[in-house]
């Protein structure tokens, strides 16, 4: 198995709670800087409502073919929320530099009347 060098830093929340957590911020993957993309949208209209969602993709290496993982919790509408998660499509170059990714899927099943919502969109440019 190939070892991939990863660089980054941990953030400690410095609280007194014994269940505290750390956040890992990756800055390079296999010697390449990493980047993320913002994403947001509105789900399909189902059972009389829709949901909004927004987030930032997982980091991925810059300058090579790649996709990003993503995860978000939708807005709380009609007494419930849903989760969206998946992998973006490959990078789509932009005319003035940078790139975006397409994403699409279905939310988790939830609601008083159990249902899912479809969603799709394009990420923002890399950051």
TrEMBL record:
Lineage of source species: Bacteria, Bacillati, Bacillota, Bacilli, Bacillales
Alphabetical list of InterPro entries matching this protein: YmaF
One Pfam match: YmaF
Protein name, per record: YmaF family protein
């Amino acid at each position: 198995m190939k070892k991939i060098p990863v660089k980054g830093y941990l953030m400690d929340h410095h609280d007194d709670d014994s269940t505290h957590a750390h956040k890992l911020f990756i800055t390079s993957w296999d010697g390449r800087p990493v980047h993320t993309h913002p994403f947001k949208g509105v789900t399909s209209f189902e059972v009389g409502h829709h949901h909004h969602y927004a987030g930032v993709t997982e980091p991925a290496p810059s300058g090579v073919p790649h996709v990003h993982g993503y995860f978000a919790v939708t807005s709380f509408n009609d007494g419930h929320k849903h989760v969206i998660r998946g992998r973006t499509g490959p990078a789509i170059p932009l005319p003035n530099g940078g790139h975006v990714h397409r994403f699409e899927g279905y939310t988790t099943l939830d609601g008083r009347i159990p249902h899912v919502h479809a969603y799709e969109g394009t990420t923002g440019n890399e950051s």
